Amino acid sequence: MKMEENLAISVFRPHLKVLRTSGLFQLDPRTTPRSTFLLHQAFMRFSLLVPLVYASQEVVYMYQVRSDTDKVIDSMYLFLSFVASVYKQVILWLYADEVEGLMDIVKGPLFNRDDERQKMILRDLARRAKFIHNWAFGLTQVTCVLWTLKSMVMHLSGSELDFAIWLPFDHNHRTYFYFVLFYYWLVTSWLGCNDCNADLFASALLAQCMYQLSYLRIDLETLVETSKEKALKEGRVFHDVFQEKFKMLLLHYNEIIRLAKGMEYIFGGSIFCLFLVTGWIFCTSTYRCVNINPMSIDFASMVSYMICVLIEIALYCYFGNGLSYESEQLLYSAYNMDWLQLDTRHRRSLLIFMERVKRPVHTMAGTIIPLSAGTFLSILRSSYTFYAVLKTTSVSEHI
Q: How distant, in Å, are the alpha carbons of 56, 255, 256, 343 from that of 327?
């Protein structure tokens, strides 16, 4: 029974484990000893300090090479990734209690009912979430390893290497190179781990809402039939059973909306920031790729990096679009119910519910950009536009 009660929260266990291990999200203060909780809070401060220091080094470096467009572009894409990651980390810190509140909704009985159809839907969601998490997390680490391997190969071949960060010493010197390389690998891996899991966690909240609405639609369409079966089995009046199940359905819908709105309130700003910087990240990454040998490690690392970013925005847009679609179909599911067998009182209640769900749920990034398939295509188009402008500007400077 315990496994079934936690079936909905199992979707988030891989993300929460990594977020807490890496210091992005707090331990649950209600179940963690105070000494352990305080130590973890200190670790969270350290995990925020590391990317801030690295980003500062990048800012100093870009200022030093501000007259060289190619060098600025080479460091810009990673700097933007650090900025977005730090912003997500701050959000998770400031809204830690609100995030715990969302997890309490997911742990609730309405999201974990004793119904085989809901269990099947949740098992499918948990399996998909784990698959996406493992592949996306693995791809970010592969990207960081490729970056590190590229630097190692260049150093061993005797080439001058530029880490695109400010350092108070010559990092190509044999005494310092491996120290700097380890620092570079550690920070970029940390960035990839934190940034990826923060986005996967937020998109998993959207997926939970979408899947719960999918179950709610099935429950709504078969509500009359299941009420009849339960009334016959328990020897009760059909209309009393229907009213009880319909009330539970309304409560379930309210909890789904609470979860969707809570996710938008907490993560809407960070998603908006991600969408803003993604266009420039794709632009600068593509600009680098066109000048790199397709068979080189550098090219493979940049393609891997762009795929990581693409997965993050694609998941937001896919599940956001799916949530809107499922909420739009609620109205039709209510109409498809066998409502002719209901009395006037229950028909009136059903009409009120249908009026309420006429307005579908549209999750927004920063209250401005909808999470939809159209937004995903717009980001890709804007990335190409940025690239075309950058390429033209670069050609003009060389002329």
A: 44, 14, 10, 26
In the numeric block, the tokens 């600009």 are attached to 287
Look up tokens 């009334």; give the residue.
231
- With beta carbons less than 8 A apart as the criterion, state whether 159 and 296 touch: no
Domain range for 215: 2-398
Please give the structure tokens belonging to residue 267.
């993560």
In a 10 Å sphere around its CB, with 0-12 CB exposed, 13-18 middle and 19+ buried, how is residue 83 labelled? middle
Nearest to 211 by CA among 104, 102, 120, 306: 120
Of 113, 111, 105, 184, the C-alpha closest to 152 is: 184
Interatomic CA distance for residues 282 and 384, integer angstroms: 8
Q: Which of 189, 200, 141, 145 is closest to 19 using CA atoms?
A: 200
pLDDT at 367: 82
Provide the domain count of the chain. 1
| Among candidate residues 343, 360, 335, the one with its CA nearest the CA of residue 253 | 360
Locate 100 and state its tokens. 């715990």
343 confidence band (pLDDT: 50, 70, 90): confident
* pTM of the complete model: 0.88
Q: 128: which residues sit within 8 A by CB, 6+ positions away?
A: 207
End-to-end CA distance of the chain: 72
